[in-house]
Amino acid sequence: MARITAGIGASHVPLIGRAIDTGDTLSDYWKPLFDGFNFTRKWIAEEKPDVIFLVYNDHATAFSLDMVPTFAIGCAETFEPADEGFGARPVPTVEGAPDLAWHVAQSVIQQDFDLTIVNKMDVDHGLTVPLSLMYGQPKKWPVKVIPFAVNVVVYPTPSGRRCYNLGKAIRNAVESFDKDLNVQIWGTGGMSHQLQGPRAGLINQEWDKRFLDRLADKPEELADIAHIEYIRETGSEGIEMVMWLVMRGALGDKVTELHRHYHVPASNTAVGHIVLESQS
Q1: Whether residue 85 has pLDDT greater than 90
Q2: How far is it, in rounded angstroms, from Cα 36 to Cα 33?
Q3: Which strand (E) or helix (H) includes residue 275?
Q4: Which residue, among 48, 36, 32, has the nearest Cα to 10 in the 3D structure?
Q5: Which of 11, 81, 134, 193 could cross-link with 88 by S-S, CB 3.0 to 4.6 Å?
Q6: What class does CATH assign to 3-278?
Q7: Containing H/E element for 148?
Q8: Regarding beta strands 255-263 and 182-188, do their DSSP bridges make them parallel or antiparallel, or are they unpaired?
Q9: Widest CA span of the chain, in angstroms?
Q10: Tens-digit pLDDT profile for residues 96-132
């Protein structure tokens, strides 16, 4: 059967992609951030996952504000990099895993989670930046990807508990797929940041690090964090961290933390990164 072997949490700051694309990763500003991903790049080259189930949020590129699904799964054969206003990033086309994606959609919907099935969409920096952080600049991505978009842009957004339980449903779905596949699940976005208004530039290092401390062993506590706390403590965009809970829910009860990295600032944003291996 297919199995979810590990999870990655990682921020998807768009300027990280810009630094990679322009060869600026060794500058004084960016090097400390990228050094924190050295472990993971080596580790994932050894792990060689077959499929990445990549949880991210669309930034009004594939979905305009006219129609915003709460949860959307990409079931297409391929996904092109999106033009976010400055042209598409110079990264490879993302190859999907439609057989597994359709199976997950069927199983998760039967577990009472309503998903929007998407057969054509471009993917923005929310998805391509984490891939670049882990795989660099290949001519072709060495892994198939199932894009899974979560609405954390327009309120109301799903609760942390809903996302955590969704992760459990995704695990059930993957484990019932009758093909031997090594699947990883990534939760992206965050950590604390606010991009507009009087609190623009807000970063709450203490809160972020406490979130990372509890992710491996106390996810139930994180699942009960209310939206108002995310907004108050981590800024308007800090709500993206509920996507890390989808990842954590899909790993089962017991995990081992292999690596952690936290860095500020990166374009007025706190960058978090963690690697968890499933022991369930």
Answers
A1: no
A2: 6
A3: strand 271-278
A4: 36
A5: 81
A6: alpha beta
A7: strand 144-150
A8: unpaired
A9: 52
A10: 999 999 999 999 999 999 999 999 999 999 999 999 9
Query: Whats the size of the chain, residue-wise?
Result: 280
- The mean predicted confidence, pLDDT, of the chain is 97
Active site residue 125: yes
**Cα distance between residue 109 and residue 15, in whole Å:** 35
Sheet holding 51-56, edge to edge: 116-118, 71-74, 144-150, 51-56, 182-188, 3-10, 271-278, 255-263
- What is the structure's pLDDT at 86? 84
Which of 253, 239, 265, 279 minimizes the C-alpha distance to 15? 265
Q: Are 262 and 37 in contact (CB under 8 A)?
A: no
> Active site residue: 193, 261, 263, 273, which one?
193
CA distance linking residue 219 with residue 30, whole number of Å? 31
Residue written as token pair 């990883």: 184
Distance CA 141, CA 139 (A): 7
Of the candidates 132, 125, 140, 54, the residue with the CA atom closest to the CA atom of residue 88: 125
Q: For this structure, is 193 an active site residue? A: yes
Half-sphere exposure of 24 (CA within 13 A, CB side): 10
Residue among 246, 111, 114, 119 at smallest CA distance from 173: 111
Q: Given the DSSP bridges, would you call strands 144-150 and 51-56 parallel, antiparallel or unpaired?
A: parallel
Determine which one of 103, 125, 263, 273 is catalytic: 125
Q: For residue range 14-33, what is the model confidence (pLDDT) as tens digits?
A: 999 999 999 999 999 999 99
- Is residue 4 within 8 Å of 174, Cβ to Cβ? yes
